Amino acid sequence: MKITAPAKVNIFLKITGHRDGYHTLLSRFMQVPDLYDTIRFVPCDCETFTIEGCPGVPRESNTIYKAWRALNEATGDLDLLEFFYHHKVVVQKRIPSQAGLGGGSSDAGAFMRLTREVCNLKLSIDELAQIGSGIGADLPFFIYDYPSANVSGFGEVVEPFDEAPLPLDIYTPPVGCDTAQVYKIFKERFLPRIDLSSFRGWEGLPSADLLERIADPSLLNDLYPAALLACPKLREYERPGWFFSGSGSSFFRLHFSTEHSAQL
User: Fold this and answer.
1) Sheet strands side by side (includes 168-171)
2) φ, ψ for residue 34 (rounded to 5)?
3) Distance (Å, rounded) from C-alpha 77 to C-alpha 172?
4) 3-state secondary structure of 221
5) Using one digit for the tens of pLDDT, what is the confidence trace for 114-150?
6) Taking the alpha carbons of 247, 97, 180, 90 in that order, is the dihedral positive or negative?
7) Strands 51-52, 87-92: parallel, antiparallel or unpaired by DSSP?
8) Residue 88 appears among annotated catalytic residues
9) DSSP secondary structure code for residue 119 in this structure
10) Which among 8, 14, 66, 88 is annotated as catalytic?
11) 37, 107, 138, 169: which one is catalytic?
C-alpha cells in the first residue's frame, strides 16, 4: 500500500489580511508531479504509531503523526487504531524541508487520503480537508489533490484551476527558511503596505501567463522580501527569470533546458 506525495510551488502568493492571529492569502498552488515523497504502509507489529524515514523530526512534530491523531479524534474508528498496530508508515523523502515546496503538508495529505481508502473511513473529501485544515494551511490543497488551484482564506478555500502542471525547473539552495519567522517579519514590516487592487483578477489568469508577464519575484510572492530579511544568504542565489515559492527557500522557473533540474 503506497501513495505519492507531490511537491507544490506557489505561482503567486499574495497576503490579503490578518485576523485571529493568522495571515489570510490568495495564492495559486501548482503540483510538481516529478518531485514527490512516497508514503508506504508496511506490515509490522507496532506497540505504538510508528513512522520511519523522517530522521531528525520528533514523532509528535511530524505532520503525519498529527494527521493520524486528528483522524482518530474526528472518527473514533477502532479499525483505524487496529490498522496501525499492524502497519508502520515508511516515508521515502525526496522533497527538501524548509523549502517552500510543501513536503510535510503533502506527506500528511497523502497519508490522510491513503488512510481514508484502506481503513474505509466514512469521511467525504470535504470532511477530510476540513480536518486537515486544523493541522496546517497547505493540507486542504494536498487532500483535494488538484493539479492546480486557487487557494484563499487561511488555506481552507481550495478552488480547482483548469490547467495542467507546468514543466518547471526547481532549485533549492542550501538555505532553510523558517516559515514562522518569515511571516513574523512580513507582519512587522510589510503588512501595512498590502494593496488588494494590485493583484485583482490574477486568480483567473493561467499560470504561464503570470510567469511570462511578471518578471519580479517580489511582485508575485509577497513573502519574498520578508524571506530575504529572515535568510540574507538567499540573495546569493537570486537569478533573473527565477521565482520564489511559498516562504522559501526554493526557486523555480519555466523549464527550457534539457536537464531535469537546472543548476545555478
Assistant:
1) 168-171, 251-254, 243-244
2) -90, 5
3) 40
4) strand
5) 999 999 999 999 999 999 999 999 999 999 999 999 9
6) positive
7) parallel
8) no
9) T
10) 8
11) 138
What whole-number distance in Å separates Cα of residue 261 and Cα of residue 245? 16
Evaluate whether 79 touches 119 at the Cβ level (below 8 Å). yes
Give the model confidence (pLDDT) of 190-227 as tens digits: 999 999 999 999 999 999 999 999 989 999 999 999 99
Ranges of H-type helices in 36-166: 63-75, 78-83, 103-118, 125-133, 139-144
Strand segments, DSSP code E, in the chain are: 2-19, 22-43, 51-52, 87-92, 148-153, 157-160, 168-171, 243-244, 251-254
Does the pLDDT of residue 157 top 50, yes or no?
A: yes
Report yes or no: 114 and 64 within 8 Å, Cβ to Cβ. Answer: no
184 as an active site residue: the answer is no
- Global pTM reads 0.92
**Would you say 90 and 40 are in contact if contact means Cβ atoms under 8 Å apart?**
yes
Distance, CA of 172 to CA of 238 (rounded, Å): 11
Q: Is the pLDDT of residue 257 over 60?
A: no
Q: How far apart are CA 28 and CA 249, in angstroms?
A: 17
The CATH architecture of the domain made up of 2-160 is 2-Layer Sandwich (3.30)
Locate 1 and state its grid cell: 500500500
Nearest alpha carbon to residue 9 among 208, 233, 216: 208
Residue type, 209: D
The cell numbers describing 132, all together, are 486537515
